[in-house]
Amino acid sequence: MAGEAQRRSQWPLGLTLLVALVGLVVLWFYNWRNGVFVFAGAVGLAGLLRATLSDPAAGLLHVRNRMFDTTFLFLTAAAIAVLAIIVPN
Asked: Which residues cross the membrane (predicted)?
């Protein structure tokens, strides 16, 4: 029973990794800039999920306290998006 509950609590991380994987596929096979934006969106999604979910429900997205995790993930997503904008083709 505890293993099942633990698996269910990892859906935020799984969803985030799935979106990040889609971003990497777009980056590799189509347009690198759009793929980087999708990847930045995955990091932003992780920040949004960490901000809205409780500590047990966040699963492995819960590393430190909620404010630190959320701020770090949103700033990382913003930095990745800014780099995608300013890096020339």
From this structure: 12-30, 36-53, 65-87
Query: Is 43 within 8 Å of 81 (Cβ atoms)?
Result: no
Cβ atoms < 10 Å from Cβ of 14: 12
- Calculate the alpha carbon distances from 59 to 7, 39, 53, 82, 89 in Å: 9, 20, 9, 28, 38
pLDDT in tens, 5-44: 555 678 999 999 999 999 999 999 998 999 999 999 999 9
The per-residue b/e assignment along 36-51, b for 16 or more CB within 10 angstroms, e otherwise, is: bbbbbbbbbbbbbbbb
pTM: 0.86
